[in-house]
Amino acid sequence: MPSDSDDSVSERGKVLTEEELDLTRHDNVSELDDGRYVVSTGGSTSDEATEAREQAREARDALDPVSDDADAEDDEPQISEMDVNAWLEDHFREIDAQYGFHATAKFDDGVSRHQVVSNDVVTSFESLLIWYAQHVGGGTPVEDVLGILLAESSVSVRYPVRTLAGLLKRYDLDRDDSIGDLLEAVSDEQAVELAED
């Protein structure tokens, strides 16, 4: 059996710090809920953004070299909204996935970013909804926040009939039961979940 060098053993046997184990500190990882995460397959967006900013600075510096250090700070290139939008468009065109989004939103006094790329349209949409609900919900469970937002919005949601069948099944109701029986079965609930199971 080949022996490991001291370097390879120490690197593999290295104990990770709490910070290194924290998935949420990475730009390409978003927490869906406790213990569930979405990891962007597009790589680290922060490294790419930093590289794009550096390239923009270098290009502008090459066009307008500054001889005085005091003027250098004043002449540092400003990245415009158009620059950011163009970079994001290029970034998403290069990603090998069918669906993706990058959202930046202001919630109360904070700003949050969320990016997902996936080949699953439902996963992408679910990730966006969960992220948004977690930021506006103030501790209210995500499913309740989404129900409230949809109920209060002017958007009428059409659910597949099989979701109603799932609701009836959960309350042991069938075709012989009346609408009154359904209303009585759910009367103690604050909300009901429409799902197939």
Task: Explain the layout of strands and helices.
Elements: H1 6-12, H2 18-21, E1 29-33, E2 36-39, H3 45-63, H4 69-74, H5 81-94, E3 99-107, E4 110-118, H6 121-136, H7 142-152, H8 161-170, H9 179-186
Antiparallel strand pairs: 1-2, 3-4
Helix pairs in contact: 6-7
Can you walk me through this structure?
The strands form two sheets. The protein has a two-stranded antiparallel ribbon with strand order 1-2. Strands 3-4 form a two-stranded antiparallel ribbon. The chain is α+β, with helices and mostly antiparallel strands and 197 residues long. The protein folds into two domains: 26-155, no CATH class; 158-197, no CATH class. Helices cover 48% and strands 14% of the residues. The model is unreliable at 1-12 (pLDDT under 50). Helix 6 (121-136) crosses helix 7. It comes from Haloplanus aerogenes.
